Amino acid sequence: MSDSIIIIPTYNEIENIERMIRKVFSYKKEFHLLIVDDNSPDGTAQKVIDLQKEYPTQLHLLQRPEKNGLGTAYKAGFDWCLDKDYEYLFEMDADFSHNPDDLIRLYEACSKKDIHMAIGSRYCKGGKVKNWPIMRVLMSYFASIYVRMILWIGIKDTTAGFKCYSKEALQKVNYHNIPFKGYAFQICMKYGVLQHKLAYKEVPITFIDRQEGTSKMSSGIFKEALFGVWKMKKMKL
C-alpha cells in the first residue's frame, strides 16, 4: 500500500492518459493514481479501465455522469482518497503541463515535519513557464499578484494546480464549502490551508503548455477567479 495518491481529473484526455499513467508507475517511489473522469466522450475512461488490468492495485477510476468542473472533481477525489487513508494527496493535470518527474520533489517537501502543502510553483525562485504566449504568462503572473494583494497571502503562485497536501490538511480544510468550480477552487484551497495556520512550501517547477488535447480554460473560469477572490475574504474554511 502506497502512502501517496495522485488525483487527475480528466475530460477528453485520450491523447495523454495512457502515457501519463505509465510514466507515473515507472518511478522507484510507488504512487497510486485516481482518475476522476467526467464522462469523456473520447474514451478516456475506457482506456483507464483497460489499463487497470495491468495495474490492478495502483490504478483507480472514479466515473462521474457529466462534466462538472475541476473543483467538484477534486472534492470527489479527496473524499475517495481520505476514505482509503492515504497520507499524501496530489493534484496534477493529465496533459504533461505538470511534469510528473517533479512528484518526488513535492512528496519530499510535503513529507517533512510541519509542512502540509507543497506547491509546484512557476513564480517562486527557480520556477519557469515554457511555450505559453507572453500575454498568457503576464496574465497568470499578475493574477497571482492580484490574489496576494486581496487575500494578504505570501504564496507566489496562487493559481498553481500541481500540489501535494497532507491528509491532516484536507481533514482540517472544509473543502465542501468551497463554491468554485474552476481555478478559483485552487486559490481557495490554498487560502483554506493558511486559515488553519498550516505550513506550506513552494517548490520551483517548469510549467510546459500542453502538447496534446485542448485546454479547458474559458472566460467563465477566468471571471469566477477574478471576482471569487473577494468572496474568499469572507469565507471560513
TrEMBL record:
Keyword Glycosyltransferase listed: yes
Signal peptide: none
Keyword Transferase: yes
Domain of life: Bacteria
Chain segments annotated as coiled-coil in the UniProt record: none
Entry keyword set: Glycosyltransferase, Transferase
InterPro entries: DPM1-like, Glyco_trans_2-like, Nucleotide-diphossugar_trans
Record family assignment: Belongs to the glycosyltransferase 2 family.
Molecular function GO terms recorded: dolichyl-phosphate beta-D-mannosyltransferase activity
Swiss-Prot/TrEMBL GO biological process terms: glycolipid biosynthetic process
Protein name stated in the entry: Polyprenol monophosphomannose synthase
Native organism: Brumimicrobium aurantiacum
Residue span, Glycosyltransferase 2-like domain: 6-172
Gene Ontology cellular component terms for the protein in this record: membrane
